[in-house]
């Protein structure tokens, strides 16, 4: 059986990267052959340009024709290999993208599981209750501050006219009380200054009533 179908290959399976590298190497090998055929074709063309028409030139033309046919075959082969390499590169990119997607999915699953475990320990009702209590405390604090900053029956609006009238009334009241308490009339010297004269006064004050000069 092994002679007919061959022994089972137990070696490592080829990968896309290896296949792409091998195909690119084949493309480079074909490019070398095409360059060699181009050089040979150019040589034939140079020789024919210097020859006269005849059997020798015709024989050389046949050789150039075979070289051109070989070059076309190699060019066709090169195009096929390049297309195969491109197809494998696309498959490799799709494989890499799929691996990245699978990795992302696994990470998201793990993260989701962790979040569920963490958030599962949190009682949203307790958080809402705590927020309500904090709001009540803040409101209570504001009320306390407003109460402590309240004024005690202090009138807010006082105009200048009212202030002038109040000051004038206070002045008249003070003058009246002084007159009643000391018995000193207007323009007379108070009694406490009659007996004792300060050292800085040159002449003793007059005790007579000062008359106001008429107009």
Describe the structure.
The protein is mostly helical and 215 residues long. The chain contains six helices and no strands. The chain has helices at residues 2-5, 16-49, 55-119, 124-148, 160-182, 192-195. Helix 2 packs antiparallel against helix 3. The longest helix is centred in the middle third of the chain and has 65 residues, at 55-119. The radius of gyration is 61 Å and the shape is elongated. It starts with a helix and ends in a 20-residue tail after the last helix. 2% of the residues are buried. The model is unreliable at 209-215 (pLDDT under 50).
Features:
215 residues, mainly alpha, elongated, disordered C terminus
Topology:
Layout: H1 2-5, H2 16-49, H3 55-119, H4 124-148, H5 160-182, H6 192-195
Helix pairs in contact: 2-3
Tell me how many strands there are.
0
End-to-end Cα distance: 158 Å
Element pattern in H and E: HHHHHH
Helix content: over 70%
The largest β sheet comes out as: none
| Number of H- or I-type helical stretches | 6
Shape: elongated
Indicate the radius of gyration in whole angstroms: 61 Å
Secondary-structure content class: mainly alpha
Spans of at least 5 consecutive residues whose pLDDT stays below 50 are 209-215
User: Strand percentage, roughly?
Assistant: under 5%
Mean pLDDT: 79
Give a quick precis of the structure:
Helix content is 72%, strand content 0%. The protein has 215 residues and is mostly helical.
């Amino acid at each position: 059986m092994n002679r007919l179908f061959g022994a089972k290959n137990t070696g490592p399976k080829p990968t896309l990267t290896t296949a792409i590298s091998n195909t690119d190497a084949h493309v480079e090998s074909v490019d070398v052959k095409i360059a060699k055929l181009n050089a040979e074709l150019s040589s034939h063309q140079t020789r024919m340009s210097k020859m006269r028409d005849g059997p020798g030139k015709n024989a050389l033309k046949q050789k150039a024709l075979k070289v051109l046919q070989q070059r076309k075959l190699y060019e066709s082969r090169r195009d096929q290999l390049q297309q195969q390499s491109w197809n494998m590169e696309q498959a490799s990119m799709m494989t890499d993208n799929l691996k990245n997607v699978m990795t992302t999915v696994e990470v998201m699953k793990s993260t989701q599981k962790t979040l569920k475990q963490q958030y599962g320990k949190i009682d949203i009702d307790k958080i809402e209750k705590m927020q309500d209590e904090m709001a009540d405390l803040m409101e209570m604090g504001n009320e306390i501050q407003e109460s402590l900053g309240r004024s005690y029956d202090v009138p807010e609006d006082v105009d200048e006219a009212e202030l002038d009238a109040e000051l004038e009334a206070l002045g008249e009241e003070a003058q009246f009380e002084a007159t009643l308490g000391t018995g000193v009339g207007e323009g007379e010297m108070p009694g406490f200054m009659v007996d004792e004269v300060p050292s800085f006064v040159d002449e003793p004050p007059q005790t007579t009533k000062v008359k106001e000069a008429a107009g």
